[in-house]
């Protein structure tokens, strides 16, 4: 068979950009695909963006809302994972650190922000000064980023960065760079990139059956309509529901993943923090206290989970555990009240003896109908996972070359530069609103401004009505929860009052 070149493939094969659910649904059932991706979390979104960029005809179907599972319930960190050095996972740390640089500098600098982390060393704690100093040198050395090497600082300097830091028995603290993100919006940015490349994106679309071809049977959960989809390849990126999808291909499939529950608390911040805190719990686990979205994100737990990941919520025992562990390094009476709580699940290799020690690597497997299932992985390394999936499908899809270079997602920009440019184009904007829009949408902020009124959703809010209308028009939002929890941070920061929810519902219905 004569194979087409990449250049020919990019020109000839992609769909034109699709806008509107009805249009996408019509094309899904009438035009053959190269890749059908099941699952609209960060892994599925990342695969879709890279596959569409390579000129492939791609569709993503998601049973619920995009980023509605683990991809909106993480610790919001883009990091190498300093603790994994202790577990001997050097290759994982090296890959993650490379991605920290790529995501924060090239791929999505408006969404992935550098953040310093403080690791306190207490007398009698699980780590001493010498091991921490060595870990900081190794952490930077794995990527050769000597200029960004962490360092040890004195207790007084650490307290300047984090005022509620406990000083009793504090011997020193390690200070090192990593990054944080809005995980749901990073997922949405990848989906927008996929759509700009011609991908068909449909949330509320459930896979209900598979047969040889491969042919996928999906059901629109909004209308109940059934659709038959033909695709050269199918990728199972369903996260916690990975095995449910595998059993549609082979009813005899066993269990391939273990789930771990991670709960978080969102607290009122105590003044300005100059760094996040990594809190050593024991020689395996750490917890985090991270300034995020005007709040303080504290957690997480790590325990085996069995049940429906769609309904997971933090328990009272987990809330107490999180506060007790935070109290190892922070004076809790100097922190504000709990604003909100949320929980998610991690997907780990099956058979892990202890979830806290389980290797965060990714496993790819193929079923009897050729479906590729993606188990495990980290938010930080989603791009590498997507590239590995594309490599796995390379022969089937006749790809001659895979471009592994980090490419900017739609909106990618330095948020400070984007805010300045936004104010020059729209001098009537309040400075705080310009900063908010630039930090949320990057260079796409102008599209949001054009979408509707810039009236705040409530007194004292920086979020505006235009964001709701934009979420409906360009970000696949259907319900108030879609907007409040995943297109904005209103739910996760405890600001989704009944009045705000009613206003959002009214805007969506308008």
Q: The biggest beta sheet, please?
A: 10 strands, mixed
Regions with pLDDT < 50 over 5+ consecutive residues? 1-15
Helix content class: 25-40%
Helix/strand-derived class? alpha+beta
Oligomer category = single chain
Strand content: 15-25%
**Overall average pLDDT:** 91
For the termini, the CA-CA separation is 53 Å
Net shape = globular
SS field, number of helical segments: 17
| Rg result | 23 Å
Counted beta strands = 18
Summarize the structure.
By secondary structure, this protein is an alpha+beta fold.
Walkthrough of the structure:
- This protein is an alpha+beta fold and 510 residues long.
- The chain has helices at 6-12, 21-30, 42-53, 83-86, 90-107, 129-141, 155-161, 183-196, 242-249, 316-326, 382-392, 415-425, 431-441, 445-451, 465-474, 480-487, 498-509; strands at 33-38, 58-62, 77-78, 112-122, 151-153, 170-181, 200-203, 205-211, 215-220, 226-236, 257-267, 276-280, 286-292, 295-299, 303-305, 338-349, 362-366, 372-376.
- Strands 3, 4, 5, 6, 11, 12, 13, 14, 15 and 16 form a ten-stranded mixed beta sheet that branches. Strands 1, 2, 7, 8, 9, 10, 17 and 18 form an eight-stranded mixed beta sheet that branches.
- α3 links the parallel β1 (33-38) and β2.
- α12 packs across α13 (431-441), α14 (445-451) crosses α15 (465-474) and α16 (480-487) packs across α17.
């Amino acid at each position: 068979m004569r194979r087409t070149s990449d250049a020919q493939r990019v020109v000839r094969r992609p769909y034109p950009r699709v806008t509107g659910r009805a249009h996408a649904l019509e094309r899904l059932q009438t035009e053959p695909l190269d890749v059908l991706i099941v699952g609209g979390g960060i892994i599925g979104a990342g695969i879709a963006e890279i596959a569409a960029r390579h000129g492939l005809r791609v569709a993503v179907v998601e049973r619920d809302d995009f980023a509605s599972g683990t991809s909106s319930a993480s610790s919001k960190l883009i990091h190498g994972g300093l603790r994994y050095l202790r577990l001997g996972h050097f290759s994982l740390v090296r890959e993650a650190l490379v991605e920290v640089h790529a995501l924060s500098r090239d791929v999505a600098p408006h969404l992935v922000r550098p953040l310093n982390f403080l690791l306190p060393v207490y007398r009698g704690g699980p780590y001493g000064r010498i091991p921490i100093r060595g870990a900081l040198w190794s952490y930077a050395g794995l990527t050769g980023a000597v200029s960004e090497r962490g360092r040890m600082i004195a207790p007084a300097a650490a307290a300047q960065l984090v005022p509620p830091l406990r000083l009793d028995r504090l011997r020193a603290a390690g200070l090192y760079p990593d990054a944080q993100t809005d995980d749901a919006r990073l997922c949405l940015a990848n989906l927008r990139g996929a759509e700009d490349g011609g991908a068909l994106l449909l949330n509320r679309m459930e896979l209900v059956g598979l047969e040889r071809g491969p042919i996928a049977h999906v059901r629109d959960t909004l209308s109940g309509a059934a659709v038959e989809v033909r695709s050269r390849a199918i990728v199972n990126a369903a996260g916690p529901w990975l095995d449910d999808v595998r059993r549609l291909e082979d009813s005899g499939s066993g269990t391939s993943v273990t789930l771990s529950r991670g709960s978080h608390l969102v607290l009122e911040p105590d003044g300005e923090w100059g760094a996040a805190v990594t809190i050593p719990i024991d020689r395996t686990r750490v917890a985090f206290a991270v300034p995020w979205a005007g709040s303080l994100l504290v957690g997480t737990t790590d325990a085996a989970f069995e049940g429906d990941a769609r309904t997971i919520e933090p328990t009272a025992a987990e809330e107490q555990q999180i506060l007790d562990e935070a109290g190892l390094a922070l004076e809790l009476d100097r922190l504000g009240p709990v604003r909100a709580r949320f929980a998610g699940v991690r997907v780990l290799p099956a058979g892990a003896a202890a979830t806290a020690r389980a290797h965060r690597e990714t496993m790819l497997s193929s079923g009897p109908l050729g479906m590729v299932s993606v188990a495990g992985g980290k938010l930080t390394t989603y791009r590498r996972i997507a590239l590995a999936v594309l490599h796995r499908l390379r022969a089937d899809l006749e790809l001659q070359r895979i471009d592994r270079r980090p490419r900017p997602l739609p909106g990618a920009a330095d948020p400070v530069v984007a805010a300045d440019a936004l104010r020059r184009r729209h001098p009537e904007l309040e400075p705080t609103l310009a900063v908010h829009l630039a930090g949320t949408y990057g260079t796409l902020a102008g599209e949001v401004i054009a979408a509707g009124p810039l009236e705040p959703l409530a007194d004292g809010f920086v979020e505006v009505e235009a964001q709701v209308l934009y979420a409906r028009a360009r970000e696949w939002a259907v319900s108030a929860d879609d907007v409040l929890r995943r297109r904005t941070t209103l739910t996760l920061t405890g600001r989704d009052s009944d009045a705000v929810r009613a206003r959002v519902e009214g805007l969506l219905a308008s």
